[in-house]
Amino acid sequence: MKRLLVTGGAGFIGSNFIKYWLEHHPLDRVVNLDALTYAGNLENLTSIDANPNYRFVRGDICDAGFVVQVLESEHIDTIVNFAAESHVDRSILGPAAFVETNIRGTFVLLEAARNYWDKGADESRFLHVSTDEVYGSLNQGAAPFTEQTAFAPNSPYSASKAASDHLVRAYFHTYGLPVVTTNCSNNYGPYQFPEKLIPLVVINALEDKPLPVYGDGQNIRDWLYVEDHCRGIDAVIQSGRVGETYNIGGCNEIRNIDIVHQVCALIDQMRPSRRPKAELITFVPDRPGHDLRYAIDASKIRRELGWEPRYTFEAGLADTVRWYLDHEPWWSRVRDGLYHQYMELQYRKS
Ligand code: NAD
Ligand code: TDX
Fold it and tell me: Which residues are marked as active site?
C-alpha cells in the first residue's frame, strides 16, 4: 500500500490522476495538497469526496512548514508533483508567479522530502511532472525530443519548468533523493481549464464567439489524452528507474488549425446549428516567442515500461468535445470575474 501526496490535484491533470489512481489502486491513500488558484477546482473531485482513502488539504507548496507537517502526519512515501502555474500565455503576461510556484515551490517540496525521508522512509519516490516544452522548439523535419535532447526553453513557463527539472535532477545526484521526472506533451480531455486551446475553442464555438488561432495556425503540438498520461505516470511510479527522466507523448502531431477544424466538425455533428462553426475561426496576433513544433520520442517508456497510448486522437477528441457539451454547468462556473479579466487582457488586440 502506498501513501501518496499529490500536489496540484485539483487542477486538470492532477484531478484526472487522483481519480485514476484510486480506481486502479483502491487500497492506497491519496492526500491532495492544492492552493486552489484560479486553475484549481474541487468540483473536479466530487465523485471521490466520500472515499475514506482520499483527503484534500488546502495549502501552498511554497509553504515549507505546512508541507513538512503533511508529509509527517500522513506518513507519505510517494510525492507526485503536479502543482504549477501551467499556462504559457499567462507566463508572458506575468512571469513572477511561475518563478515562485514552479521553481521555488518545487525546491520547497524537494527539501521537505529530503529531510523527511532522511528519517527513514523505505520505498519512497518523488515523481516530478514536467513538460516537453523544456526542450524548446523543433523545426519541420527535425527528429522528436528524446530524453537526451538539450533543454532550450523559450517561454517564462517552460524556463520555470526547466529550472525545476534541473533542481529535481540535482537532488538525485547530490543527495540521492529517489526522484523520477516525466516530460509529457500537450494533454487534452475532461476538466481542462478553458484557457487552453481545445476547451477554449469548444466553449467559444458553443457560444458563437470567435475561435482565436494564433499567427497562421501552422504550429504543431503532440497531443495525448489525459488518461494515457495518468497511466504513464503510474508506470513510472511503479517501475521507472530512480534518477531517470521519461518522455511521454502521443506520437500524434497536429497543426493548431487542423485541431480547430476538427473541433468545429465535431460540434457541427453533435449539436447542429445553421452556421458551420468553422466560420468563427479568427486569426489573431501570434503568441510572442511561439514555439513552432513539439514532438516526443516516447520509445524509452515504451521499451522499459511497456507504456503506450490507448486513445486515438479521433476517439479522445470526440469524448472530450462530448464531455464539454454535457458539462456546461462545470465550465460556466469556472469562468468567474477573474477569467473574464484574463480573456480581455489576452485577446484585446484580436
Ligand atoms: P492546471 O493549471 O490545470 O492545475 C494546476 C494545479 O496546481 C491547480 O489545481 C492549482 O490550484 C495548483 N497550484 C498552483 N500553484 C500552487 C501552489 N503554489 N501550491 C499548491 N498548488 C498549486 O495544470 P495542468 O494542466 O493540470 O498541469 C499539471 C502539471 O502537468 C503541471 O506541472 C504542468 O507543467 C504539467 N504538464 C501539463 C501539460 C498539459 O498539457 N496541461 C503537459 C505536460 C506537463
Ligand atoms: O487561443 C489560443 N489560440 C491558439 O492558437 C490558444 C489558447 C492557444 N493557441 C495555440 C498555442 C499553441 O501553439 O494552440 C497551441 C496550444 O496552446 P495551449 O493550449 O495554450 O498549450 P501550449 O502552449 O502548447 O502548452 C500546453 O502544453 C504543454 C500546456 O498549457 C502546458 O502546461 C504543457 O506543459
Answer: 132-133, 157
